[in-house]
Please model this.
Amino acid sequence: MIEVRQVPFLVEVAWFVIADHHAKPCHRCHPDGWCPRFAAARARLLAWRLAGDPR
Model:
């Protein structure tokens, strides 16, 4: 049986930040597309993916 890993709340928020920035950039977004909020959300998702299953 396949067990599904629970998604932490901050990871869900990071997904929302990325999806929202794709739809409409925020006032902090630079003309080249870089944004501190987007960068932090992307780093959080990458860390969560690399961490894998905590067991």
